[in-house]
Design a protein that fits this description.
single chain; 409 residues; alpha/beta; UDP-n-acetylglucosamine1-carboxyvinyl-transferase, Chain; four-stranded mixed β-sheet; 13 helices; 19 strands; globular
């Protein structure tokens, strides 16, 4: 039976929230911890589905791994298992089997891997005959998913010849590649990145104590709430000014949508400033996971927008661009995808039929980016709200604690 929530807004928000740990950092730390044969526990590891599937894989005695809907785990484990002796099978959810993985698989095969597609060519599930990879020189498109690049970089030091990667076309989500390289450097492995070429010589990881930061992407939903609610103020704990996460750029992006950021000893304090841009323009090539938050915020504030650099959103948990168009239209906002990688709202509205219920498409970010809309609309109905467990399991509990009311149907 489908679960539905009816969300009603608080009168104001003044509260303190412990944000979840970064899923991106947690999943990289798990791979690096394993590659370095570390006995150190990872501090502040994310408590979410995407990280749990990696933990389960590393603790499993089986050679069959089900990553469910976790794209990061699928990409990272594919590269990891390709270099580990043994025969492995890696599979996922129905949607995961629709998400292309051939750029990563073909690159790994060129580096000496043996990988077969078990169903549709170019897509999971995969059968991997793990062995030591030769390494060498490869070319990889940078405009599809940075996770392919990060997956290869982390296993590169273990290859016989190391890796020289030439990245072609525009690089999307560049900060995530920087995050990977920074965490590898902390673990004693050096990478040379010059222009669009990354070189990693054969090296040995050293065991270190990884400490995971709080998640800046999760913070973006609180920025949205503060933006929509005059007089509101939030203390978000665990965030750092000198963060490895690209989505920390949310601090500057939200200034035009009425939110100021003050860094304090244990995190940040964000406040509504009532500032509102006449139109919002941004290239999200470096922060694609923030695009849904900003599309929703702009619509609910009545700020027309033009986004570019969001081509990678089409191969996420769902086609996030089309999902935004569909669901925001239910709420009266007419968005247009004029070309791939672009999304625009020029202020056009349409009639709202009845009491619409938002669909979440098995996508945690659809749920969390649209939930604050209850503030602007008075209430919001949402189907399958449980999808937040992918990255922020306590999201509904946290928003109830600051005054939102949730009727569970």
């Amino acid at each position: 039976m489908q679960v539905q929530y009816t969300i009603s807004p608080p009168d104001g928000i003044r509260a303190t929230i412990d944000l979840p740990a970064s899923k991106s950092m947690s999943n990289r730390a798990l791979i690096l911890n394993t590659l370095s044969l570390s006995s150190y526990p990872i501090k502040n590891l994310a408590d979410c589905e995407d990280t749990q599937v990696l933990i389960d894989a590393f603790n499993s005695n089986s050679n069959v791994f089900d990553v469910k809907a976790a794209g990061t785990a699928m990409r990272f484990l594919t590269a990891f298992l390709a270099g580990m002796e043994g025969e492995w099978i890696i599979k996922g959810s129905k949607r995961m089997h629709e998400r292309p993985i051939h750029p990563l698989v073909e690159t790994l095969v060129a580096l000496g891997a043996k990988i077969d597609y078990l169903e549709k060519e170019g897509f999971p599930p995969l059968k991997i005959q793990g062995r030591k990879l030769k390494g060498g020189e490869v070319y990889l498109a940078g405009n599809i998913s940075s996770q392919f690049i990060s997956a290869l970089l982390m296993v590169a030091p273990l290859m016989e010849k190391g890796l020289i990667m030439h990245i072609e076309k525009e690089i999307v989500s560049k900060p995530y590649i920087n995050l990977t390289i920074s965490m590898m450097e902390q673990s004693g492995v050096h990478a040379k990145w010059k222009n669009n070429d990354i070189t990693i010589q054969p090296q040995t990881y050293k065991p270190i104590q990884h400490v995971v930061e709080a998640d800046w992407t999760a913070a973006s939903y609180w920025y949205e709430m503060v933006s929509l609610l005059p007089g509101s103020e939030m203390h978000l704990k665990g965030l750092k000014k000198t963060s490895l996460q690209g989505d920390s750029n949310v601090t500057s992006l939200f200034t035009d949508l009425g939110v100021s950021t003050e860094f304090v000893e244990d995190g940040i304090v964000i406040r509504n400033t009532k500032r509102k841009a006449k139109k919002f323009f941004h290239d999200f090539v470096n922060e694609p996971d923030l695009a849904q938050t900003f599309a929703a915020t702009c619509c609910f504030l009545g700020v027309p927008f033009l986004f570019s650099g969001i081509q990678s959103l089409k191969i996420k948990e769902t086609d996030r661009v089309q999902a935004l168009i569909n669901e925001l239209e239910k709420l009266g906002f007419v968005l247009k995808e004029n070309e791939i990688g672009m999304l625009e709202w020029d202020g056009t509205r349409c009639p709202v039929e009845g009491e619409p219920a938002i669909d979440t498409y098995d996508d945690h970010r659809m749920a969390m980016s649209l939930a604050p809309g209850a503030i602007a609309l008075g209430s919001l109905r949402m189907n399958d709200p449980h999808v937040v467990s992918k990255s922020y399991p306590n999201f509904w509990r946290d928003i109830e604690n600051v005054g939102f009311k949730i009727k569970r149907n």
